Amino acid sequence: MAKEMIAMLLAGGQGSRLYALTQKLAKPAVPFGGKYRIIDFPLSNCVNSGIDTVGILTQYQPMVLNEYIGNGQPWDLDRLYGGVHVLPPYQKASGSDWYKGTANAIYQNIPFIERYDPQYVIILSGDQICKQDYSDFLRFHKEKNAEFSVAVMEVPWEEASRFGLMVADENDKITEFQEKPKNPKSNLASMGIYIFNWDVLKKYLIEDEADPDSENDFGNNIIPNLLKDGRNMYAYHFDGYWKDVGTISSLWEANMEVLDPEHSGINLFDENWKIYSRNSGMTGHKIGNKGLVENSMVTDGCRVDGHVKHSILFAGVKVEAGAEVEDAVVMGGSVIQAGAVVKHCIVAENVTIGKKAVVGAMPKDGEKGVATVGSGVVIGDGAIVGPNAMVNKNVEGGEEQW
In this protein, which residues make up the domain named Glucose-1-phosphate adenylyltransferase/Bifunctional protein GlmU-like C-terminal hexapeptide (predicted)? Predict the structure, then answer.
């Protein structure tokens, strides 16, 4: 039985710009928004859009991600026919190859796609925070009689040179593609989300793989080749929330925006478009007699006896008496001990912040930067971690880390 459209989710990214946060896990597995991981967003979008077959292409540090996805049950993707499938590189008769680029990753999984004989394939990124109805995107693709469509967002002209840009006419037909140009002709930034007619995509993947000079990449190879051949290519304008959380500062900002859904555009409390995730299985959270929580998200299993302000606490976080947490993202299982001060920073999973230690600081006018503490790190009693520090090893009590 053929599927109208299946999704291929690129989730093998290393996320090197997230530094200490991705030393032990792939970027799509990075925790976000209190109870989620980044990959929950494209998976939930698929289910909410009626897509029930998803191939997840993993590569870098896949263990946590594979364990988290499991059989796909939290996203209603545990299906007998379709559902979610983790697709790492594997050994073939011709040898074993890592995924060499985004296009090569899809090429290596042509047999998986052909099992479902789809008319359309949507290519998704596993490292963005976005709530999007892919069924509306498909409707646009069909109405335009397109062979390739790309989701785009208008960005400020002064930032356009940072993106891959689509130049389109008044009917949204793409006439040119610019990859991070010095002199942009458009401010329509590609979101890296594509819909292809499967027969067209298959043809171009096979031709690209046969080209020894190709980088095997959608942006650098497949899209330019489609343009060169005059294919029907269209730009789908998306006006919802979308953020590439590829840097520490953008990840921190996106988490803070969760706390202000009315102004930021990202509403994780929307009953009509839920973001699903794997349940932590922990008990409810508890605020102690001396605990104080202001405008924050506090999730399962948290114990708060200190002061938490404008912050996100993931499952199982403990904030002891006298501790202060402000403008911070504190990931699962971490402990903020008595009297510690944690401000304007990201604390990864299973970190211990010692008594009266100081991590980060509220920025002064014009200052940027977010302090970051990597997974499993112990910050000793009385230690000081400066406002821009990136810490991925233990810090002894009394030491200063800048």
Answer: 287-379
Q: Residue 161 carries which DSSP code?
A: G
Residues within the annotated binding site for alpha-D-glucose 1-phosphate? 99, 164, 179-180, 190
Give 320's pLDDT tier (boundaries 50, 70, 90): very high
Cβ 16 vs Cβ 22: under 8 Å: yes
- Measured between alpha carbons, how far is 28 from 16 in angstroms, rounded to an integer? 12
Closest CA to 164 of 203, 206, 125: 125
Long-range contacts of residues 11-14, Cβ cutoff 8 Å, at least 24 apart: 11/39, 11/56, 11/57, 11/58, 11/65, 11/126, 11/127, 12/57, 12/58, 12/59, 12/60, 12/62, 12/99, 12/105, 12/126, 13/60, 13/126, 13/127, 14/60, 14/61
Confidence grade of residue 207 (pLDDT, cut at 50, 70, 90) = very high
Q: Are strands 400-401 and 378-379 parallel, antiparallel or unpaired?
A: unpaired
Each residue of 121-146: pLDDT tens digit? Answer: 999 998 899 999 999 999 999 999 99
Burial tier of 281 (Cβ tally within 10 Å: 0-12, 13-18, 19+): exposed
User: Is pTM beyond 0.85 here?
Assistant: yes
Average pLDDT over residues 241-246: 88
What is the tens place of the pLDDT at every residue in 255-307? 999 999 988 989 999 999 999 999 888 999 999 999 999 999 999 999 999 99
Q: Do the beta carbons of residue 34 and residue 259 sit within 8 Å?
A: no
Q: Which residues pair with 169 in a beta bridge?
A: none
Phi, psi of 17 (to 5 degrees): -75, -5
pLDDT, position 94: 57
